[in-house]
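Course assignment 3, question 2. Fill in each field.
Student: A.L.
Task: Predict the tertiary structure for the chain below.
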Amino acid sequence: MVRKLVVVMAVFMFMMPGGSFGQEGLGILLINDDGIDARGLHTLKERLEEAGHTVTVVAPSGNASASSSATNLGGTFLIEPYDKGDAIENEYSVSRTTFQQEAIDPVPGTPADCLIASASILDSAPDLIISGINDQHNTGKAVQFSGTVGGALSATSKLSPYDKVPSISVNLEGIFFSDPDEASADFEKVFDDAADFTVNLIKRLQESAVSGGGGLLPQGITLNVNYPARPLEEIKGVRYRRQGDTYLVRFDDGTGEYPVRSIRSVPEVLSQDESGAMEIQSVVTIIDANETARRADTEDLVDGYITIVPLDGDYTARSGDRGNVRRRIGALNSLLHED
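Answer field:
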């Protein structure tokens, strides 16, 4: 029987400074949105530990995909040591609950919940926060709803209980490899390859931090990594890109080839009653991706490249757009009075 700990937590709990980025082994907090049992999570933890890093896993008790940066503001979390398997240490699952624990079934926490909850487990701030390995891609517009990316972005935002801790989101795309309904041993191995790539990326960041006299990454920056689920010998290379505009799915066109296309979702009204209440369904509409000129991530991932995109999580518009809007609004104080 695991020991259960109920923790009532506000979001801005405390701030702790980050550690030394030049050390041989880093203190890494590992979160995800697929849940504590996810293959990618445990594969990455194993590889990171083999590389000499100290890893603490704090993950949702179940699947919390597409939760973005949502969190249970001021709510109560149930934190449980993970006890499945042999010799598992430093792994915890997080659920949302209430004071009347027996009156409600806990639901999985989100990646951002896990980030906040980790501050009650760790004695000091981690050197690096990693979210993943996610079992689906998060390119283009997917970053806006992805729990994997949302957790990593939360780590570099004011939501984080830590100060100035860099983060990485790692995603593995299974739709390019085989029939999505039939997982294969070859596909499972790609988790290992993606974990090895992440370890190499961290090593490179450590080396540049030492030589450059700075941190692993600039303050507030998250790296969003997408790894195509192909055998290592079929990976064409690594490309540093910007976020694209499209989201990809693989679908059955009847040929058995399962082609990949970019999509957008439009609602279809299924029913509507006399009060005006409607039941709608989000319907996938295929659109063409044309992102090569923008040097965006989506098309490169489809072509077999690993993509790395820096994200800052700052929703402020670009400087040129800010100036344009400012001119349109005009005299600000005059808005307080009628003309």
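Instructor remarks: Helices lie at 39-50, 111-118, 147-155, 185-212, 297-302, 319-329. The chain has six helices and 14 strands.
Grade: pending
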